[in-house]
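About this split. The held-out portion is used to measure sequence recovery: a designer receives only the structure tokens and must propose an amino acid at every position. Recovery is the fraction of positions where the proposal matches the reference. Here is one held-out target exactly as it appears in the evaluation file.
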């Protein structure tokens, strides 16, 4: 049996993830060194977001 997820809760999760992503982008632009380090890790950030959403939907988070 799946737990119901309210649309508002899902929007809050997406909003937090987008804010984190934007914060990383801003810090990366301000600190050029950090941008160089995050360059190859950006796909991993997307994978992390997908994994967090899947874990949320399967009630393992």
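Reference sequence for scoring:
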């Amino acid at each position: 049996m799946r737990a119901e997820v309210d649309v508002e809760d899902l929007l809050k999760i997406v909003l937090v993830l987008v804010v984190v992503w934007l914060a990383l982008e801003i810090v990366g632009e301000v600190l050029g060194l950090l941008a160089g380090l995050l360059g190859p890790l950006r796909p991993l950030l997307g994978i992390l977001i997908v994994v967090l959403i899947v874990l949320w939907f399967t009630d393992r988070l």
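Annotator remark: The mean pLDDT is 80.
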